[in-house]
Amino acid sequence: MTNGFNKILRDFIIQANTENLKVSAYPKEFGNFRMKVSFGQGAPARIPWIAFIAPDMQVSRGFYPVYLYYKAQQTLILAYGVSETESYGESWPVEVQNDSNTIKAFFGVDMPRYNDSFVFKAYKLSFAKHSDSFSLTYGKEDLLAGEKEIEIDLETILDYYTKAVSREAQKETSPISQGLFYMEKQLEDFIIQNWDNTELGKKYDLIIEDGELVSQQYRTDIGPIDILARDKKNGNHVVIELKRNQTSDDTVGQAMRYMGWVKEKLGDKDVKAVIIVGTYDQKLDFALKMAQNIEVFIYEVSFKLGKFSSSR
After folding, report:
1. Tell me, what CATH number does 182's domain have?
2. 285-289: long-range contacts (C-beta < 8 A, 24 or more apart)?
3. In whole angstroms, what is the distance from residue 69 CA to residue 48 CA?
4. Helix (H, G, I), strand (E, B) or coil at 298
5. Residue 191 is part of which domain span?
6. How many domains does the chain have?
7. pLDDT tens digits for range 197-208
8. How far apart are CA 69 and CA 30, in angstroms?
9. Contact assessment for residue 72 and residue 143, using Cβ atoms and an 8 Å cutoff
10. Which of 132, 200, 219, 299 is the most exposed place for a label (fewest CB within 10 A)?
């Protein structure tokens, strides 16, 4: 996932030592995250940065991996970043906060910005005189000279961030969990538009009548089904419901209600259902033990779909 990031980082460091504040040349996404770059607003910043942000977070409100370039100290820090502008309500897991130095502790003095973020890795910059040529070192190694340490470090913290965000999302009161509701409102359209590239599209067909797609928000006299599809192998109907801002019991009950409608109104006694959720839910797991012909798919932050297994 991080292959080729050395070039992005090299370009960032070179530009950070100029008056150029433009960021349009940098990717807007990196892996499963939004990527934000800043060299300052109106005037060059003393500490330019590159941040990797999960959905529902902002640089001004959240926690995220971030490169902080302390130009005066010629030091680049890959940090467990913490927003300064607005409190998010959640932060990095306690093991990070207990075991990692803050920026302030690392430098031993108050720095102009980001004192409360935590150091994951610090690299020393060494510039050649009168040149854009420089080395970025950790120990004695020039990390931009073909070595893999930069990419390994970034991949390590991004993997940890993914797990930390997932852990917070499982708490119903977490801002991340609340943010999933917004994502779920977009997810239905995303699934329809990218049907052939999802796990669902490999097994099921959307329903088209008179040249029009009728699968999405399929009309019934007891309410609309989020998506109604057909099994590619046997033609049986598949009720697909997204778990929105409701309980697991409500979601299972709703799916079963629509299955009953399809069985009676469309004459399909072998109808099945798929429930799509954002996070693992033990209540849902127990409910499914007593409900037949219902599968669960968990969508990831990147909007991938992966089949749920209660053994996870």
Report:
1. 3.40.1350.10
2. 285/310, 287/248, 287/249, 287/252, 288/252
3. 5
4. strand
5. 175-307
6. 2
7. 888 999 999 999
8. 19
9. no
10. 219
Q: Which two tokens stand for residue 179?
A: 């943010």
The model's pTM is 0.56
One-letter amino acid for residue 66 of the chain: V
CB within 8 Å of 260: residues ≥ 6 apart = none
- Whether residue 32 lies inside any domain: the answer is yes
Say if residues 309 and 235 touch (Cβ distance below 8 Å).
no
Find the CATH number of the domain harbouring 84: 3.30.920.90
* Shared-domain flag, residues 89 and 150: yes
Q: Are residues 163 and 191 in the same domain?
A: no
Q: Provide the b/e sequence for 118-127 (b: ≥16 CB within 10 Å).
A: bbbbbbebee
What's the CA dihedral at 126, 130, 131, 134 to 10 degrees?
A: 0
pLDDT in tens, 29-64: 888 788 999 999 889 999 999 999 987 688 888 899
